[in-house]
Design brief:
Keywords: Chromophore, Flavoprotein, FMN, Phosphoprotein. The protein is an alpha+beta fold. Helices cover 40% and strands 27% of the residues.
Length: 495
């Protein structure tokens, strides 16, 4: 017999050993009865020699479990615990095992004396005499209602998780992944087999500091829920932004056993908000300024005394502003077109990059366009037509907004065979891109964008983000800018 005792300030297990072999039969029987009565589960003994195999013994645990008194059940078959929700299959299993004189264990719904239902794990073991004849059946009844509720809750959770559009991951208390749902696989590119057993650090994008992650871990290990906007990186190197919620799961003792993380990909929402905001600002700012200039020069043209040189200057100013308005209208239409094509951003296509760049060389014969390409054969990108629009914006901006003649543009392609992405840069010798516009593109905030250059930058940004990549803008040496696209390649999916 074992019990908990305190020894030197710590709990220890004290075990008492009784010399059963030296006891007489009456003492042994008394000990067995005491042990069975003290057992934390229901114990029954039935007699198959009597009609209907009635109960001849029940312990205190059985009485506590079912609510029945001994006098109410002794002499009856144990089927009185069955009721409306008791399935026939486990009952038939027990009956067949008893007829075959074999042990059996089943789980079924039973009913207490007060009519309340509980889940019962019933184990029946035949007791044989020295001659091998079954003389009794020993039964164990264990209340597993809490376990069944947990299993049912888990089943409901899994059904909901399997159908959820949000990526869901469950880790143990050490942060080791135990479960991911299909949305997690779809968003992050890792299959369940690839993710389970690893740490969520596989999704780190490099966009957040170590202090950021330290605060996350400190929050959830303290038992609090953590919520924040987070940029993650997929298996294929794609970046995506989402609202993440991580919550600790505790047991009945209050100890943290698991963490549940739910991620909602908000990249498309963020891009949509930025698109609407930028277009609204451009329409208000650029077009309003253009109309003001046109109105002003129109008033000057009404002056009959205006000399021919001033009149011509006003006409040119009106034409310039009209061209700006057309440019804005064209860019707006282009953005609408891009947004409609973005729905196919999951489609992987082969891109003939060399052919595309040769088109630019023919389109701008007065520009010096140098292409440094290597290993571009069979390159795969998401939605090649959409990416070509972003690349076209980069080349067009570099040529049309330069202050040097001839424009000098260098296009460089690089792919590390051990990496899941490629890098394509467009370098020019122009006046450069202002720090304000660079910061706007990097942070996603709106700033004044003039002459269509800023809109073109946003087109590059939107397309790159939609395709799961990253856009950077740096200085060129000795002057100009370098626009670099970092994009996942579909070749990595075949690895």
């Amino acid at each position: 017999m074992s019990s908990l005792v305190e020894w030197d300030g710590t709990e220890q297990v004290q075990t008492s050993v009784f010399p059963i072999a030296g006891m007489d039969s009456d003492s042994r029987q008394l000990l067995y009865n005491d042990a069975m009565d003290e057992a934390p589960i229901g114990i029954t003994i039935s007699d198959p020699a009597q009609p209907d195999n009635p109960l001849v013994y029940i312990n205190d645990g059985f009485c506590e479990l079912t609510g029945y008194l001994r006098d109410e059940v002794l002499g009856q078959n144990c089927r009185f615990l069955q009721g409306e929700a008791t399935r026939g299959e486990p009952v038939a299993q027990m009956r067949e095992a008893i007829e075959a004189e074999e042990p059996v264990s089943v789980e079924l719904r039973n009913y207490r004396k007060d009519g309340s239902m509980f889940w019962n794990r019933v184990t029946i073991i035949p007791i044989r005499s020295d001659s091998g004849t079954v003389t009794k059946y020993l039964g164990y009844q264990q209340d597993i209602t809490a376990q069944k509720r947990y299993e049912q809750d888990l089943s409901v959770f899994k059904r909901q998780a399997e159908q959820s559009e949000k990526a869901i991951v469950i880790t143990d208390s050490d942060g080791t992944i135990q479960y991911v749902n299909p949305a997690f696989e779809r968003v992050n590119g890792y299959t369940a087999d690839e993710a389970i057993g690893r740490n969520p650090r596989i999704l780190k994008s490099g966009q957040h500091s170590e202090e950021f992650y330290a605060e996350l871990w400190e929050t959830i290990t303290a038992g609090d829920v953590w919520e924040a906007e987070l940029v993650n990186k997929t298996k294929y190197g794609e970046l995506y932004e989402g609202k993440h919620t991580i919550a600790p799961v505790t047991n009945l003792d209050g100890d943290i056993t698991h963490f549940v993380g739910i991620a909602e990909d908000r990249t498309e929402d963020v891009l949509t908000t930025q698109t609407l905001g930028i277009l609204n600002r451009v329409m208000r700012h650029n077009l309003r300024n253009a109309l003001n200039v046109i109105d002003g020069h129109a008033e000057l043209l009404e002056d009959e005394e205006l000399d021919s040189e001033a009149r011509q200057a006003s006409v040119e100013a009106i034409r310039d502003r009209a061209a700006l308005m057309r440019n804005v209208a064209e860019k707006t239409a282009e953005i609408r077109s891009i947004w409609s094509q973005a729905e196919d951003s999951e489609r992987w296509e082969q891109l003939d990059l060399e052919s595309v760049l040769q088109t630019y060389q023919r389109q701008y014969p007065d520009a010096e366009i140098t292409c440094r390409l290597a290993d571009t054969e069979a390159i795969q990108v998401r939605n090649a037509e959409l990416f070509k629009k972003a690349l076209e914006e980069a080349v067009t901006n570099a040529i049309e907004h330069t202050d040097r003649s001839p424009p000098d543009v260098t296009i460089t392609f690089h792919r590390d065979p051990d990496d899941d992405q490629f890098r394509l840069s467009v370098a020019d010798n122009g006046p450069g891109i202002s720090a304000i516009e660079r910061q706007a593109i990097k942070s996603g905030e709106e700033t004044p964008l003039e002459h269509g250059l800023g809109i073109g930058l946003w087109v590059m940004k939107w397309v790159t983000t939609t395709l799961g990549g990253e856009l950077t803008i740096t200085d060129n040496e000795p002057r100009g800018s370098v626009v670099t696209f970092y994009l996942p390649t579909g070749d990595s999916k075949a690895k």
